[in-house]
Amino acid sequence: MKVVVIGASHGGIQAVVTMKRLNPQIEVTLIEKRDNISYVSSGLVLKMTNVVDDLDDVRYISASDLECLGIKVLLNSEVLHIDSNSKLVFYNNDSISYEEGYDKLILATGSNQFSTNLTLPSKDKVTVFKDYISSTEVLSRFSEARVISIIGGGYIGIELCEGLKNSDKEIHLIESADTVLFRYIDKELAEIIKQRMESYNIELHLNESVLGFKETEKDSFITQTTNEEIRNDYVIVAVNARPDTSLVGDFLDLNSNGTIRVNEQMQTSDPDVYAVGDVISYPIHNSFRKSFIPLVNNVARSATVAAMNVLGNKMGYLTTQKTTASKIFGLYVASSGLTEVEAKFEGIDVESIYKYSLPTSFHKETRRGSH
């Protein structure tokens, strides 16, 4: 059997390694449009905080490592078309077109940054943060900027603020929600993080959406939000990740949120095509719906499930707890399960308890909601 995997993201790598270790005789080809693999996106923050000396130090496997396992790795190879009837993948490498046949196909194309439909200033003033290339852009440009705006108050945006907190920069964080990390933690905990960020002179612009950018006569430019105008030298966009399904929308069933529809075995509407990682939606424990949750733990699990089923070992993906963890501004932050807002949206009658413990025996406790 021959298996082709499109995308050397964390999911694609997990899938090919799992298959080869379980069945060394299987023929596996990994196709990746970039010239590098296995870059951990938090590597930029690790570099900024001097945890690592170089961005390449955060890679966990190389193309040569995969080739030693007997995996055919095609870098700088952009897939242009998939013919599901003939089971052929057409790709381009160095302006030359090739085709690769398959018995089973695994899609691990991941996510990309959704276009904000905004007219951007010159490219050297704005970086859409996602991968290794954008990380190198940030490193090369932020040192020359005095005022930096970061759009997005999720983990990526907060961690970027963490990496810049001890610099001599003026840092602005713009978030459309009324709190930071609203997808992962409740407001009481978010307020602690907010206060800690402000203690480092990070200027928070909550409940504000970016409307556009305006050039000025000087080097700086203006980021216009719903409430104000921020004069800045450089902007990092860290929002709106969306599943990359551009190759399969014409022959696979998609969900209303744009992800590929799969069953518990990661099998798509084409029984010989599987999908994993950020390109699918996941069932959440205590939720009646599947959601787009671009977290690496979900990516790894879905890739393992797909690999097992491709090899004929039936395994199902049940539910995710939406678990996250990070260290930001001197705080260890972790979450698992639904937030209070999400639970109420699901129709669950919840009680929310917040307890703050001092080093002494003093305790302060507040309760909201009903049993």
Describe the structure.
The chain is built from eight helices and 24 strands. It has helices spanning 10-22, 43-48, 63-68, 132-142, 155-164, 187-199, 296-310, 340-345, and strands at 2-6, 27-31, 72-74, 77-83, 88-93, 96-101, 104-107, 111-113, 126-128, 147-151, 170-175, 203-206, 210-215, 221-225, 229-232, 234-237, 241-243, 273-275, 282-283, 290-291, 324-328, 331-335, 351-357, 363-369. Helix 1 (10-22) runs parallel beside helix 7 (296-310). The longest helix is centred in the C-terminal third of the chain and has 15 residues, at 296-310. The termini are far apart.
Which secondary-structure class do the elements indicate?
alpha/beta
Biggest β-sheet description:
5 strands, parallel
What best-fitting shape do the alpha-carbon axes yield? Answer: globular
Strand content: 25-35%
Number of DSSP strand runs = 24
- Overall mean pLDDT: 91
Low-confidence parts, pLDDT < 50 over ≥5 residues?
A: none
Give the count of helical stretches: 8
* Strands ordered across the widest β-sheet: 3-2-1-7-18
Helix content: 10-25%
Radius of gyration: 22 Å
Distance between the termini: 55 Å
Fill in the keyword field for this structure.
about 375 residues, alpha/beta, 5-stranded parallel sheet, 24 strands
Question: Could you give a quick summary of the protein structure above?
Answer:
The chain has 371 residues and is of the alpha/beta class. It is built from eight helices and 24 strands.
Helix-strand layout with pairing:
Elements (H helix, E strand, L loop, with lengths): L1 E5 L3 H13 L4 E5 L11 H6 L14 H6 L3 E3 L2 E7 L4 E6 L2 E6 L2 E4 L3 E3 L12 E3 L3 H11 L4 E5 L3 H10 L5 E6 L11 H13 L3 E4 L3 E6 L5 E5 L3 E4 L1 E4 L3 E3 L29 E3 L6 E2 L6 E2 L4 H15 L13 E5 L2 E5 L4 H6 L5 E7 L5 E7 L2
Parallel strand pairs: 1-2, 1-7, 2-3, 7-18, 9-16, 10-11, 10-16, 11-12
Antiparallel strand pairs: 4-5, 5-6, 8-17, 13-14, 14-15, 19-20, 21-22, 23-24
Helix pairs in contact: 1-7
